[in-house]
Amino acid sequence: MRIRQPLTPVMAAILAAGSASGQPVWPPPYAMIEMDAPPGTGVTPYGINGSAAMAGSLGSPNLAFVWQNGIGRYLRSVNPIYAADANDVNDSGWVVGQGGDFAGHFVPTLWIDGEPMSLGTLGGDDGEAEAVTQENSVVGIAEDADQIPWGFRWRDGQMINIGSLGVPGSFAYGANNLGQIVGHCFDPNFVGRRAFLWENGQMIDLGTLPDGYEAQALDINDLGQVVGVSIDRDARSNAFLWESGQMRSIHNPDLSRSSVPERINNRSEVVGFVPQQGQAHAFIWNETDGMRLIEDLIPPNHGLKIQIGRDINDEGQIALETYRGPNQQGIFVGALVTPVHPTMTLADPTPGRAGTNNTLRLTGVTPGATVRFYYSLRGGGTLIPGCASRVNALQLAKPIWIATAAADGNGEASITRTVPRIARGQTILFQAVVQGECAISQLVVWRFE
User: Fold this and answer.
1) Is residue 327 scored above 90 in pLDDT?
2) Does residue 253 register a pLDDT over 70?
3) pLDDT digits (tens, 9 = 90+) for 406-420
4) How far, in Å, are 285, 315, 341, 386 from residue 391 at the CA level?
5) How many distinct structural domains can be found in the chain?
6) What's the rounded Cα separation, in Å, for the pair 226 and 206?
7) Contacts of 245 (CB under 8 A, 6+ apart)
8) Coil, strand or helix: which one is 428?
9) Does residue 296 register a pLDDT over 60?
10) 198-217 per-position pLDDT tens digit
11) Nearest-CA neighbor of 197 among 185, 210, 189?
12) What is the domain extent for residue 354?
């Protein structure tokens, strides 16, 4: 059982399929690289580290995994006959989540170099690790002897109960490298959930937005910025950012009536989701652009439903939950959304008609460099061999090589090829790359006449 879930009022609104209706940004600033999974199974990433290693869960059977540079590795429970889920990974490669033990319980679990270790509980049976910091502190939820769940911090082999604001029980979801922990517990007057910040043994109530009834804190960065949701009496959940004692809304009412953040990085970028037309849609928020749908920032024709932004690292790379299918009963597909940095300019195909020769012309190339030209019918992303994903990635899914050309002394390269008549009316995506430099052009999308 996964303990950490978005708040019930929000999930209740996400029942039927729908489509986003934002404003696409062009050229799209991200590539979206799908994670491979065995046929018929779904894969969902929940955490990402600074090297774009993602940790998460594979469905049917339920296995924890780590994925990096296109390669996945599965993680077993302490007792390998039981399922496992991974929630987070730090830059040291420590993975945390939940797995089965030899007593038949599901307990907070830490994987180091792929080897599982039970972190124990607070005297009860079950629990789950939610996050791991760069300082190798782990936070999560563990039961006591009365089966009451409590937020915990585990460090150097010792687990402590971080307490509550009065009513027994608490839930710890996020932590930073300054020793601060956030989550929620219950109001002493039984009013509802209260978002908290814990530090040095002291827990404070973060309050709610002005129209809020209850709140839940979900993550904190090293700037002390907390993100979470404040819920009003009409069950609307609004994403908030709390810092220096002040809580403010980061919700965009033009996108949805509700919003739920998942994680915040040290660049103050937030990812999460909004319900729109009965379906979850992933968002990214920053101070400059506000809240935008990730769907509007990635290449077109990818064929996936973009559902939840689960985590974001300090490079701006996002662990994304998507799915493929006619509705939310489809196959879950994890993806890495990574910023792209085009330095070359690719012109539209000339003359842009099918059944004749067309030229692709590229400028801004290093003179003498070898350029590879690609096309695809689908947008998305592909790793460039020898290039780190944080540097650049192609914005094409399953790219097909067209030809190679050398740039002249003016930094220009071009190819001419016949476009078959069957391409008339089709939309085709083009991009060029200098592989040795990890340099790419912007994406070109063209519908042939």
Assistant:
1) no
2) yes
3) 999 999 999 999 999
4) 22, 9, 7, 11
5) 2
6) 9
7) none
8) strand
9) yes
10) 999 999 999 999 999 999 99
11) 185
12) 345-447
Q: Identify the top-confidence range among 65-79, 315-329, 434-448.
A: 434-448
Same structural domain, 330 and 425: no
Considering the domain architecture, whether residues 52 and 164 belong to the same structural domain is answered as: yes
Q: Which backbone phi and psi does 309 adopt, to 5 degrees?
A: -80, 110
What single-letter amino acid sits at 260? V
d(CA 74, CA 215): 35
Which two three-digit tokens encode residue 310?
Answer: 């689960």
* Residue of 62, 42, 46 whose CA lies nearest to 54: 46
CATH number of the domain where residue 395 is located: 2.60.40.10
Do 29 and 160 sit in the same domain of this protein?
yes
Contact between 274 and 290 under an 8 Å Cβ cutoff? The reply is: no
* Residue 45 burial class via C-beta count within 10 angstroms: exposed 0-12, middle 13-18, buried 19 and up: buried
Q: How do residues 164-194 score in pLDDT, each as one tens digit?
A: 998 999 999 999 999 999 999 997 776 689 9
Q: Looking at the structure, do residues 299 and 428 belong to the same domain, yes or no?
A: no
Spell out the SS3 assignment of 111-158.
Answer: EECCEEEECCCEEEEEEEEEEECCCCCEEEEEEECCCCEEEEEEECCE
